[in-house]
Amino acid sequence: MFDAKFVRNNVDAVRAGVAAKGESLTLDNFLALDEGRRQKVTAVEQLKAERNQKSEEVAELRRQGQDTTLLQENMKALGQEVKELDAEIKEIEQRLEHILLRIPNLPDSDVPVGPDESHNKVRSLHLLPRQFAFAPKAHWDLGVALDILDFERAGKIAGARFAIYRGLGARLMRSLISFMLNLHTTEHGYVEVAPPLLVTYDNMVGTGQFPKFTEDAFKIAGQELYLNPTAEVPVTNMHRDEVLDGMQLPLYYTAYCPSFRAEAGAAGRDTRGLIRMHQFNKVELVKFVRPEHSSAELETLLADACQVLERLAIPYRILEMCTGDLGFAAAKKYDIELWMPSYNRYVEISSCSNFRDFQARRANIKFRPQKGAKAEYVHTLNGSGLAIDRLVAAILENYQEDNGSVRLPEALIPFMGIEKITN
RNA sequence: GGAGAGAUGGCUGAGUGGUUGAAAGCGCCCGCCUCGAAAGCGGGUGAACGGUUACCCGUUCCGUGAGUUCAAAUCUCACUCUCUCCGCCA
After folding, report:
1. Per-residue pLDDT at A218 exceeds 80
2. Which bases in strand B are touched by protein, i.e. have an atom under 7 Å from a CB?
């Protein structure tokens, strides 16, 4: 979110940034409301100054034992006027905030310009897709045949877009969680957290999901609580309304969280398998950093996420997202995509984003650069490190053998206690 | 779920409806002292918004929201959260 003053003073830049993201906002209404607000604020503040002054007079006259009824009568009208103006201002401010909360973050200047995903830039390729000497199976077939995935029974429990992990499948998921959390905590310097999975409306606003994308979230009936769509929400909001000690920055957090998405706009897409589910598992990376470091921190965040795929030896590529594919809150974003034989293409496994101070403003997260210095907004970043269900799918598909068994990546063997999943 | 206590600045903690943006202490910053430091002494030290932007001026903010009043941190109501005890439970 931007503050009104910034928008007022940088109308053209904001318009251009919004347009680059493929949205349109005239801001004319905003500017008119903003101008009207300032006029009313100036007016009401004069009245309030008068009220304060007269109130002091009342106090003074009373001390002298004089009658103040006449003065008090005059004050009533003044008080009423103030009340009405305050109400008008409040209404205008609500409308201004309504607009401000819906202005997307502006792209960094080095982000490739383009309307949609077709303009994303491939930054690098890592390992080449394996050439199969047999017809590779999709993970939903492999997993069911190996009796480690069960979609049918998951449907009995919760309907479509859910999965049951079973036996070695459940152990594989647990192994991936441990493997990734261990990697990030012991080698990359992240602090592991296990946050609440239900979050308030304000939390969702803080990270930018709300108010624009309420239909993507699951709401708890009768309560103002939502199932978290990504650990980004609870972990970033941990520090909401705080002034962090500048000496403690940067803060690195990693969290494993089940995550929940309504997938409102995805009816009929990726209906099979583990790729797009209402409930999925993810290890997330979140950083709170000084503004001058956030660009460099995005690069190391990306590297930390890629390290998982390096260790698992799965083919992947890194995409630099263009302006039209940045999403609402990001100023710059990389996607990591891994090779999925059943799709015969790369599939997203992680998004690593720099939000600059966009989320920090919404969630009111500041830091004090030095003792005694004025507090400033921090920069926040996050990325999946990585999405677990898609990783399971990719391991099954990329490591499958012609007899339907699946070898395990070296790095997972200590966690699994076996080298191969067979029937 | 029942009963009680509480919520004030970076922290601790005073506060009788009327110079209380808020005592005091801690912390922090500047100065004096010192070779330097500590101690001591003196001064300063919240945020947001608006007007001017050199300085400065005004308004708002004492958990949140409403109300009473000429005037609310202080009175009333609702809500949220924290703590203690009981009940329940993993």
Report:
1. yes
2. 10, 18-19, 28-29, 44-51, 58-60, 66, 69-71
